[in-house]
Amino acid sequence: MLRRPPKQQYAALCYRMKKKQGEIEVLLLTSRDTGRWVIPKGWPMPAKKAHAVAEREAYEEAGVKGKVEKEPLGYYHYNKALRTGLKIPVRVQVHVLEVQEMLKNFPEKGSRRLDWVSTQEAAKRVNEPELKALFEVFDTRACAPVPKTAAAG
């Protein structure tokens, strides 16, 4: 059986530091169709680079703004159910976004639930195994000690 190459989407793994505890929280939101837990993602946009699309989707779907990393954290795959009932394979490129601002009004406000959770809780809630693994990769990276720079001499 012939398989088409997967369609491409871009996503934002949004995080913030809890002020009092100094712990990292990540943002999950529900999909509009099935209500499952996901991260903001969307299709390519004309004249926008991948990280800019991820940043835009975070704003549209969750009302967050911040600093997005240009290099992807990684990728995950899922099957997107179309309105026709057909399922198509999708490859999602994930960019990390440090949330600096949460807006009261944004395009998809009211159509999704948002929840700030630990990376461990996020990995439990999402369905896609590769996305679960990306939360673990992010957690490991976020907890790694910052390397000390050599003294200028």
Description:
The chain has 153 residues and is α+β, with helices and mostly antiparallel strands. The chain is 23% helix and 36% strand. Strand 2 (24-30) and strand 3 form a beta hairpin. Helix 2 (119-125) runs antiparallel to helix 3 (129-143). It is globular and about 50 Å long. The model has no long low-confidence stretch (mean pLDDT 91).
End-to-end C-alpha gap? 63 Å
On the 0-100 scale, what is the average pLDDT?
Answer: 91
Unreliable runs: none
Strand content range: 35-45%
Please summarize the sheet with the most strands.
8 strands, mixed
Order of helices and strands: EEEEHEEEEHH
Radius of gyration: 16 Å
Structural class: alpha+beta
Oligomerization status of the protein chains: single chain
- Tell me, what's the shape? globular
Tally of alpha and pi helices = 3
**Percent range for helical residues?**
10-25%
E-strand count: 8
Brief summary:
This protein is about 25% helix and about 35% strand. By secondary structure, the protein is of the alpha+beta class.
